[in-house]
Amino acid sequence: MPFLGKDWRSPGEQWVRTDKGWERMRMWRLKLLENLNENVVARIIKLALEDMESRHSALVTHSQPHIYVAKTMSREHQMQISLGDVLTKLDFAGAAKNIRRFNYVCKLLDVLINEKLQYLGGQAQKQVFSILEAATNYVVTAKTNTQLLKQLLVSARQVLIAEERYHLGSPTLWQNHMETVNRAESQLATVLEPVHEAEEGSRTLADLPNECLWKILGMLSDHLDIVSTGLTKKRLYEISAEELLWRELCLYHFTYDQVNNLLVSGQRRNNLDWNWKKLYLRLVKRHGKKEVYADMLHLCDNCNCVFWKGLGHPCLSKDGCHSSTEVSPHKFLQIFNP
Questions:
Q1: Which value, in Å, is the radius of gyration of the alpha carbons in the chain?
Q2: What is the pTM of this model?
Q3: Is 93 helix (H, G, I), strand (E, B) or coil?
Q4: Closest Cα partner for 87 from 139, 135, 154?
Q5: pLDDT tens figures, 243-295
Q6: Phi, psi torsion values for 165, nearest 5 degrees
Q7: Measured between alpha carbons, how far is 127 from 338 in angstroms, rounded to an integer?
Q8: Regarding beta strands 297-300 and 305-308, do their DSSP bridges make them parallel or antiparallel, or are they unpaired?
Q9: Residue 233 vs residues 204, 208, 217, 270, 336: alpha-carbon distances, Å
Q10: 297, 306 in Cβ contact below 8 A?
Q11: pLDDT tens sequence across 188-212
Q12: In a 3-state reduction of DSSP, which class is residue 304?
């Protein structure tokens, strides 16, 4: 019989009334689970986990790195905002670990290291090299963009040696930057393994149909990648030299007026010995390549906020952010002139 009284001598068991009489709650639960089907139990557990994840995601707020810029920024206000603070607020160290923002971060680092490093303050220098460390860790883990990082480290070493006596900050800080570059090069050396010949019988890129190879090469936006691919196999060279491929590259990087002006100037000089590849190389020499980034900084046209396009920002306008302007690395340094 169940113990229904409130006496302190009660064993503490909970009882439930069933068709067969009174049963302990603990034993009744075990019998209930034994009678359930395995599929039903799995479904109950799945629903419970989904409910727990939805509650957890509702409590988590996604970070939106951003910084507001005054539309009429005076020189005094500009001096109050240091480049180190801007790099921290926009989370460039975290952006270096994202495949969509990696190229943009590396381009900004390239400009800062080659043109601005010796003029930066100590805090900004620390931020630049902490971002470089984050980019190195990402490349070593993902094993992608190794050549891009290698060029960046070579530039950093050359600048550190050339500007050793003409920089802001202490010599100890400058030496710490050199040690950071040494560590990064040591980490990168573990990833840069020698290329081995393919084993006999194994399939390679050159075994794909011409249509697939043309499609793959057509997705490359850098002509150096196309030329390097063509140097590996004769078949790849023939495809990389096709006129249609270089024509598409010309129309992607340059406007119709730029292409037409170069053609007209060539006709005036009676220089008719040209093809699309030569035309592209001349256009690159005159206008430079088009900067292409999967995700980059934008400037909101309503609240004048600099933010990552892929992450958005808390717009101050009631209507929200309907339009924004792309911020290239050079324009970024014009806004936050170090």
A1: 31
A2: 0.72
A3: helix
A4: 135
A5: 888 888 888 888 888 888 887 776 656 655 678 888 888 888 888 888 888 89
A6: -105, 0
A7: 13
A8: antiparallel
A9: 10, 12, 14, 36, 47
A10: yes
A11: 988 876 656 656 667 777 788 888 8
A12: coil
